[in-house]
Amino acid sequence: MRLLTGVFFLLTSFSLSGQYLKGSWIMAYVEAKQPIYTMVEIDGEYQMADDVPQDSSFVYSNGLMLIDFDSKNPVSYSWDGKENWTYQIEADKIYLFSQQDTLYGSYQEGQFAVSSTLDDRPTIYYFKPLGFKAEFAELENTGWEVKTEGSFFSKKEFHFNEDSVERKVLTQGANEDYTFYGLENLNTIEYEISYPILEGAYSEFGMVYFFKDGKKKLKAVYYPVVGDKEPTRKELELKKIKK
Q1: The whole model's pTM is what?
Q2: CA angle 108, 106, 17 (to 5 degrees)
Q3: 20-129 adopts what CATH topology?
């Protein structure tokens, strides 16, 4: 009986310390402290003081990073290009290590939230599982129509050039701004929209991740930032426009 108990303890310890992730995970959004700068009057003009800015409240912003955990050593794609990682999960803690950075934070099923040793103020990066195989799509010199109904992006067309994106369907009364980022194995659009609604004004922004979904289809995932609410996942389906 003691032998069986010992074997069970070893197996349990191994399973707890040997947790691993699968599939592709995207940086859904970022929660960071915003700096407050002090203005001083110098020779009749107001200028920012040289003092270190103070931290204000946490605000949400969009992120841009995908980590593929299916390989032996996870690979990420982001502003910094392709990067190799190692990682470990200990109960509800997670640590990721690369040559340039170390990420550390909390892990739970369906999410991990980490900070970087390189940050100079409190910042938390939230990663969520993509939920399907991330297949890269060549978007340059192609056009796509959004087929998903009930979204701000419904029926919009996006035409991708080498380093820009043009939308062909505008929303009446809205201000729209889009920036295309064609990174290695990763295509995204950073967007910001605002328009008057009823007696107030509505605005949102975020990062849309695009992935191949068949020969003539794309699937997009994004976490729109709206006010101070925690961003939630949305998806889009797009169909290729014939030339």
Answers
A1: 0.83
A2: 70
A3: Lipocalin (2.40.128)
* pLDDT for position 14: 33
DSSP state of 90: E
pLDDT at 15: 35
Compute mean pLDDT per 10 residues along the chain, 243 residues long, and list them.
38 47 96 69 65 68 94 89 94 95 95 93 94 92 94 92 84 88 93 76 92 94 94 97 85
pLDDT score at 39: 61
Query: Residue 6: which H helix or E strand, with range?
Result: helix 2-17
**Secondary structure, 3-state, the chain:** CHHHHHHHHHHHHHHHHCCCCCCEEEEEEEEEEEEECCEEEECCEEEECCCCCEEEEEEEECCCEEEECCCCCCEEEECCEEEECEEEEECCEEEEECCCCEEEEEEECCEEEEEECCCCCCEEEEEEECCCCCCCCCCCCEEEEECCCCCCCCCCEEEECCCCEEECCCCCCCEEEEEEEEECCEEEEEEEEEEEECCEEEEEEEEEEEEECCCCEEEEEECCECCCCCCCCEEEEEEECCC
Domain boundaries in the chain?
20-129, 142-240
The residue written with tokens 């910042």 in the block is: 123
